[in-house]
UniProtKB/TrEMBL annotation:
The keyword Transferase appears for this protein: yes
Enzyme class: transferase
EC identifiers of the protein: 2.6.1.-
GO biological process, alphabetically ordered: amino acid metabolic process
Lineage: Bacteria, Bacillati, Bacillota, Clostridia, Eubacteriales
Keyword annotations of the record: Aminotransferase, Pyridoxal phosphate, Transferase
Protein name in UniProt: Aminotransferase
Cofactor requirements of the protein: pyridoxal 5'-phosphate
GO molecular-function terms, A-Z: pyridoxal phosphate binding; transaminase activity
Amino acid sequence: MTGSLCERINPVVRDMPPSGIRRFFDLVAETRGVISLGVGEPDFVTPWHIREACIYSLEKGYTMYTSNSGLLELREAIARDLGCSYGVVYDPREEILVTVGVSEGLDLAMRALVCPGDEVIMAEPSYVSYAPAVLLSGGRVVTIPTTMEKGFCLKAHQVERAITPRTKILLLSYPNNPTGAVIDRRTLAEIAEVAVARDLLVISDEIYDKLTYVGEHTCVASLPGMKERTILLNGFSKAYAMTGWRLGYACGPAEIIAAMTKIHQYSILCAPITAQMAALEALRNGRAMMERMVREYNRRRRLVCQAFRDMGLNCFEPGGAFYAFPEIRATGLTSEQFAQQLLLEEKVAVVPGDAFGPGGEGFVRCSYAASLEDISEALKRMAQFVRRLGVK
Ligand code: PLP
């Protein structure tokens, strides 16, 4: 073999930095006795009735492929859920595709829509997978900085200004990871008006919709003129504590769902039937347990935000998801230094804000999807750390 193997790797992949979260967690794995507020994963086990439904399905011999689009019964349940929650009507036969998590839905949507050089507009800071998904599809990422002062929300005039003749997609994500920001209906409606006027496609990742503590979640597709241009992504990982099951769904115009299904049928074939059976049970009978978990996150949310303020740090009030995003500039450290020193000195893991793009610098992401006991101990250690740095 001549030359280095690295030279043969697709340069887009070769030059892509590893996820800032992953990089940090390799460090965490090497340190003993760490309390982690790092992972964006429910600390709850999937409710028993959901696990039981999966076990029964195995007993009954449900071990085969399903249709590429997913079990029709599940797609019907998804359509019912969206209809009841947001009044958006999707045809389960043509407008819904069951995916391997929102992660696959995102990848499929980008691959189905983005042509080389197309621009995708997104807020910054934002979820770590968005920019790579665009780049892997040959697209260009256009970020709009959002600030704590403006509630970490995009504004219509910012979107308008970022549009060029190459803009194809606007990527929205509320409630937001890492900031916990929720967007009010009016602001979202103004953004939607721009999307309609400028004929943009919209990908809306609403994986945290059920984890909304302040106000009500607005489903982007429910706004006037939006259903026909929106690919709505959602899944079971967060709301039903089902991260490991790897199940999500994409809803959108039939032509786009058909294009996504084409890629899916040649790559994944179908989402695992076991997870689909479990998801069906989650939608049929999971609301009470889900609401109980959400109430618990909300209790922790209040505690965590207050604790950061008591430490003398600015802490934006997250209205959704399960992350607090305190500003750590007062400590004089960069977010990377803060996270590293906190890990070394106090054995508490948080994620440096710059893992979510340069706009996250000056902040750290702390997940409160951890037990109250762990959260309390971690906050005590963080308070000591921040005090030593002379804050307050
Ligand atoms: N979208 C956002 C905003 C997330 O925070 C995450 C996981 O942290 C995902 C998507 C991935 O979701 P899934 O587990 O359904 O692939």
